[in-house]
Design a protein that fits this description.
Arc Repressor Mutant, subunit A, Flavin reductase like domain-containing protein, 2 domains, alpha+beta, globular, about 35% helix, single chain, about 325 residues, 3-stranded antiparallel sheet, Pnp Oxidase, Chain A
Length: about 325
Amino acid sequence: MNAMNQLNPNPVLPAIDAKAFRRALGNFATGVTIMTAQNAAGERVGVTANSFNSVSLDPALILWSIDKNSSSYAIFESASHFAVNILSAAQIELSNKFAKRGEDKFAGVEFDLAQGDAPILKNCSAVFECEKYDIVEGGDHWIIIGKVVNFHDHGRSPLLYHQGAYSAVLPHPSLNTKAEPGEDIFPGRLYHNMYYLLTQAVRAYQNDYQPKQLASGFRTSEARLLLVLESKTATCKEELLREVAMPIREIEQATEILAQKGLLIDTGNAYELTDQGNRAAKMLYQIAESHQEEVFEKYTDNERELFKKMLKDLIGI
């Protein structure tokens, strides 16, 4: 201990700059949630929050925090249950809607009522239904602890928040292992078999492409439908079944979800994209075309065209 601290065992530390502190915290990437609840009087509330965290596995406990000045706190305090809706990467608009103040946030939003009448939102990455367990004071926030009584794991790629902006999940580049220079990765007779090479090529292409597509928040079935409908290669539902090459159950499930999101409408004989659906499809095409450029940049235009011609011949186009 130096002489200064011996004379003053409790030195005054410099005040924390709140804005700088918030910026520093922004380096920690978090998921984005919408916390929802409804009290016995039927008052409903929902707020966007990124303070969600797990506490315990046994019992299953989670927590999040809310500003003491929030007008929504009174309903969370009086409600017996609340829900943690973990948003998917396709739910930025929903996040922004519930982050606003002074409006009916549930207007036009589809939801179901869970235990304790807590609203649970559609098409999230996951949802946790929680019984209020405890509320603890934490500076200028209340820390709300919930006991998980049920959960729904939908497996969608989550929406992230990092350095003040929305982001999405992609695999780390170091996980993309490639062959070393000079290494023969095609030894033996098997690697002269066209069927084997084609299936391995598709698998390798998907390994890098699918995570980029899933980061958009759309499942593979939903993305495929959007791309096919935007291209207008299917004029009716029967042709759509052929183009997307998916089981009818998958198509029905995907079209129902896309319709709920306002991305397509069912005209009876066919499905048509809305303006919002066309924008989503164009975003997916940009992801696909960017990846295609990345993969084939070392080949000439003539080589690319020849490769596409060979594939089309094999398909029978």
